[in-house]
């Protein structure tokens, strides 16, 4: 493997680690720990945490797309092994889900916190939780496909 491909793979995996690791932390460590905290404290904290995390995910999306697209082109684009297409497909689904959470669901949380409408905020947080869980499932499929692609 050429040095450029190694660098691309390194960036790809680093960005994936930030994105998927952050989702695991949010879903399995942060969320359960906040279950008994009052909405007045919980929702502003969630807004602050995810406001920062989504910037990291935005950067990860750019790096995953650029490095993945570059490697895929080197693997022959449309002629790349089918598991690479599966990875890319689920990668795109993850990006669309992230875009929806960031630009449709998260602003609802922000508005609810500003207006102190806690039930509205809690509903939007629940929607975000489901979509993050969905993205975690997509990420497991994408990583599994990536590993499968080694056999080709
Ligand atoms: C548009 C999205 C994506 C494209 C075009 C893409 C493309 C690629 C390509 C071409 C490789 C090299 C494959 C190989 O060395 O056999 C790769 C590696 C990898 N990708 Fe992706 N990828 C994308 C998204 C993702 C996502 C979202 C994840 C995980 C959540 C992911 C996880 C991995 C992993 C773990 C590897 C390392 C595979 C290995 O070396 O065994 N990729 N990706």
TrEMBL record:
<feature type="domain" description="Copper resistance protein D">
    <location>
        <begin position="48"/>
        <end position="147"/>
    </location>
</feature>
<dbReference type="GO" id="GO:0016020">
    <property type="term" value="C:membrane"/>
</dbReference>
<protein>
    <recommendedName>
        <fullName>Copper resistance protein D domain-containing protein</fullName>
    </recommendedName>
</protein>
<keyword id="KW-1133">Transmembrane helix</keyword>
<feature type="transmembrane region" description="Helical">
    <location>
        <begin position="131"/>
        <end position="149"/>
    </location>
</feature>
<dbReference type="Pfam" id="PF05425">
    <property type="entry name" value="CopD"/>
</dbReference>
<dbReference type="InterPro" id="IPR008457">
    <property type="entry name" value="Cu-R_CopD_dom"/>
</dbReference>
<keyword id="KW-0472">Membrane</keyword>
<feature type="transmembrane region" description="Helical">
    <location>
        <begin position="82"/>
        <end position="101"/>
    </location>
</feature>
<feature type="transmembrane region" description="Helical">
    <location>
        <begin position="50"/>
        <end position="70"/>
    </location>
</feature>
<keyword id="KW-0812">Transmembrane</keyword>
């Amino acid at each position: 493997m050429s040095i450029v491909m190694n660098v691309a793979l390194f960036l790809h995996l680093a960005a994936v680690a930030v994105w998927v690791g952050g989702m695991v932390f949010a879903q399995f460590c942060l969320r359960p720990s906040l279950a008994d905290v009052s909405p007045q404290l919980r929702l502003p904290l969630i807004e602050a945490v995810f406001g920062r995390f989504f910037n990291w995910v935005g950067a990860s999306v750019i790096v995953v797309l650029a490095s993945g697209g570059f490697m895929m082109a080197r693997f022959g684009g449309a002629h790349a092994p089918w598991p690479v297409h599966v990875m890319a497909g689920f990668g795109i689904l993850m990006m669309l889900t992230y875009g929806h959470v960031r630009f449709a669901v998260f602003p609802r949380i922000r508005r609810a916190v500003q207006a102190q409408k806690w039930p509205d905020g809690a509903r939007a947080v629940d929607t975000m939780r489901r979509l993050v869980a969905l993205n975690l499932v997509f990420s497991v499929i994408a990583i599994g496909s990536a590993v499968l692609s080694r056999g080709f």
